[in-house]
Amino acid sequence: MGFNCGIVGLPNVGKSTLFNALTATQAAEAANYPFCTIAPNIGRVAVPDPRVETLGRIGKSAKLVHTQLEFVDIAGLVKGASKGEGLGNQFLGNIRAVDAIVQVLRCFKDDDVTHVAGRIDPLADAETVEIELLMADLDALERRAADRQKRAKGGDKEAKAEIGVIDKALAAAREGKAVRTVDFSAEERPILKTLQLLTAKPILYVCNVDEGSAAKGNAWSAKVEEWAKANGAAAVTISAKIEAELATLEDSAERGAFLADLGVGEPGLARVVRAGYALLDLITFFTVGPKEARAWTVRRGASAPEAAGVIHTDFEQGFIRAETIAYDDFIACEGEAGAREAGKMRLEGKDYVVRDGDVMHFRFNL
């Protein structure tokens, strides 16, 4: 399962509390001092998707398996991290390893929980993190540019191909712009990915509000949401404290009553996970049978053989065709047999691009 989001932010904004609630564990120690999370904690979280239950019911499946995302709780950043301050080098190294960034912003006041800067200003916090990531990218790009120029003069073709991408990213970084805001061609993107630039990663802002603001947010979260929208980013508002309490309730009726009392329609974490899934530009396809109904994850634009390879590499290598039914057709026809009789089952080949919700059965031969 190769898709993960790194939870980042300044110290004492609620990162570890959010991680604990996401994974329903106490794997990360949540304490009122910087750097309580020394090594990145990793947890896998089911992506809420009611389609799995519906497919399982129709397919009379014995087991339901949701797709998952991996969340990594990364040590708190402080100003100067790009120069090695605090746990800067470790922090930046851990971020390079994730696919997307979930930045927690403190949008609550609590005299018992000290803010590292002594004030509550989520937009300033966001800027602090972005500047540190940008400075680290600028340093890495300048060093990479000098190296590639030297190798290109020696006739290195790969170095020549990289120079154009590096120059484009470097120009943005020098202007103080995140690399994710730059438009790269389809040919340039694979090269960009190898650079492992921090500001090239997609980002989701999570506004951590007080318990009383969980339903509608507050003035701080409203500013973040407005700012994120204006900058082409996404934002979700939750109360990590409430979510942590909710995670301790095992009874679904009790959980529902708890949310109803707060005037909250669904757990905020469900929105965080779905937003993280969308942030990575992922889609879901399904397999349904008597043993299990299972959700599988692929990147948008994946071909049928690539989807088959998610299940098993042999499926991709020996791919013949994919028997495919759209989710709505599977439901309307009450399952595979009905869809087949209604002519709603399609035989798709190697060039087929998987669509979100496809119910698939792969034929292969080794």
Helices and strands, with pairings:
Elements: E1 4-8, H1 15-23, E2 41-46, H2 50-58, E3 63-65, E4 68-73, H3 88-96, E5 100-107, H4 122-153, H5 157-174, H6 189-195, E6 203-209, H7 219-230, E7 234-238, H8 240-247, H9 252-262, H10 268-279, E8 282-288, E9 292-299, H11 304-311, H12 313-317, E10 319-325, H13 327-332, H14 336-341, E11 346-348, E12 359-364
Parallel strand pairs: 1-4, 1-5, 3-9, 5-6, 6-7
Antiparallel strand pairs: 2-4, 8-9, 10-11, 10-12
Helix pairs in contact: 1-8, 4-5, 5-6
Question: Which key features would you list for this structure?
Answer:
three-stranded mixed beta sheet; alpha/beta; six-stranded mixed beta sheet; flat; 366 residues
In short:
This protein is an alpha/beta fold and 366 residues long. 42% of the residues lie in helices and 19% in strands. The relative contact order is 0.14.
Quaternary structure: single chain
Q: Helicity, in percent?
A: 40-55%
Q: Beta-strand percentage?
A: 15-25%
SSE arrangement, N to C: EHEHEEHEHHHEHEHHHEEHHEHHEE
What is the β-strand count? 12
Looking across the biggest beta sheet, what order are the strands in?
2-4-1-5-6-7
Overall 3D shape: flat
What is the average of the pLDDT values?
85
Q: What's the tally of helices?
A: 14
- Cα-based radius of gyration, to the nearest Å: 23 Å
Low-confidence stretches: 25-38
* Main beta sheet strand tally, sense and closure: 6 strands, mixed
Roughly how many Å apart are the termini? 24 Å
Structural class: alpha/beta
